[in-house]
């Protein structure tokens, strides 16, 4: 095992650096053998049978090619929950936990209707239902593959969440009910920002979930804000995860759509990551 450890680290360091390579190796052993850091140390000089070693090496090869470990094992943590993920969905991010957290804190005991646009794995919709159990939550996505994953996650967590396939950019789109809260983490990375992104995001995560045209980076925000303004009642809340490069512009989108109390909130790293407003 010591030999294997040296090999794994040498394969992963070029792409991930030492710290992340070690963290990935530990997760690999956790998945494959249920090992903790302590077990790993304890079994350092054990012999591994060839079947297990071959399996492990195949995973190491995939990691070394940049494939995210979440897609290899098909799951990703979000809060304390484990969400199924597949290449049809974005891997849930910690920033998005902060968005959910902010909504929950502002809406203790909420029992109205919530629409989550671009639900992906369903991480926002299902977590909101977990934390606000009397809410009625519907997730929308254009991707049939993503919706299958979101439905699986809701069922696995025994949460009663509805999902609907819809293209929010289609002028005919309607929520089909009067939401009190509209939340969205829409595609917001511009193609010109692509070159700054890691290969494991670019090569493996769905581009449909990530990218918008450079000419109109706020397209989804404008369309969703207008739709929310026309279908929500006064006092309805809009919550967005945003591209931190466009915090000011996204706030303006909400103001122009008729929202008041518009503010941009910082994430734990001090970046503007959330924009929210209340319908006048
Ligand atoms: C940034 S991902 C967010 C996924 C998930 N809500 C999260 O926070 O991890 C954006 C999602 O929007 C969906 N999407 C892209 N274009 C869409 C459209 N025109 N109408 C509805 N959903 C769309 C994608 O399939 C993707 O699941």
Overview of this structure, please?
The protein is of the alpha/beta class. It has 2 domains: 2-65; 89-279, Rossmann fold. Helices cover 45% and strands 19% of the residues. The chain has 11 helices and 11 strands. A 7-stranded mixed sheet has the order 5-4-3-6-9-11-10, sandwiched between helices. A two-stranded antiparallel sheet has the order 1-2. Helix 6 (123-131) links the parallel strand 3 (113-117) and strand 4. Helix 1 (2-33) packs across helix 3 (50-64), helix 5 (94-106) runs parallel beside helix 6 and helix 10 (219-231) runs parallel beside helix 11. The longest helix has 32 residues, at 2-33. It is elongated, with a radius of gyration of 21 Å. Residues 90, 92, 96, 118-121, 123-124, 140-143, 146, 166-169, 185-187, 208-209 line the site of S-adenosylmethionine.
